[in-house]
Design goal:
With 318 residues, the chain is an alpha+beta fold. It is built from 12 helices and 6 strands. It folds into 2 domains: 146 residues; 99 residues, no CATH class.
Amino acid sequence: MEWAAETLYAKARLYMERAHEEPLESPLFAFWVSLALELLCRAALAKVHPVLLADPREDGSILYAFGVQPSKRPKSIVTKAIVIRCTLLVDGFTEEMASHCALMADRRNAELHSGAAAFDSFDNAAWLPATFEAVEVLLRHLGTDFNDFLGVDHAGTALRMLRDRRESIKKEVQDRIAGARTAYAQLSAEERSAREQRWGSQIAELLAANPVRRKVGCPACGQPAVVTGDTVSRGPVHIDESNASIEREVRVLPTQLTCPHCGLKLDGFQEMRQASFGAIYTVSESEDPVEFFGNDPSDYIDADKFVREYLAPEYDNE
């Protein structure tokens, strides 16, 4: 099957070999890498099940994913849909990675379908580390590694690039935390107290407005800060009979921290991880059963009859 994970992975690896036949600064190097990256995303979904690649508007495509040869050539979903599904089904594949993969695909499309020389003057320092970051997560999901995908020589380069990128992010995060800590320490006691009073209730409002947010201690000043992130998955639902609601656990990958007390901001999973906030956390989600099941009460209750039998007697007794 053309959508088998093994077939897609083998083609992605072939395209990476073609990329490395070109000079690193060559537009063709970036072009082949962009193709390999998309195929790797598709392989990651196909490992879960090939039907995840099928265009849902085409019944034949869905049947093809189950091994049935349709009368028409099967169609797969577009790259942007592929990378969105990867954020939901590939552990550690963040929205930032999805955005990067989508941008690479957009540039590839511009190269192929327009007059733009989309990969000319495309500095690999601006895109290659982020590409290898996404590739590393996808390879882990597929049960393989850089040595197999790139070959031993090129794998060493990729791993060094990732290490340098992480060390650079780590230093930047540490410097930012130290700067925020110093700025907070220089505040007067009166200003610190004023900020605590000002932000106490507002933090509670921020937490109430979005169920995936949670309160943590700021790594710079120790005051309450707000963390938010991307929903990774949801657990099974259960009914809370005490308040007639549907409850379930939501697993969240942290991607942002904001502290209103000292002004510290961290953005992206890599920055959160370097600040020791990279662990997936869970929150509880509550939903009204009517909204959850999509039922309209009027389909089951005769409003006029309800008024006549239950409310009308009360009105008559007044």
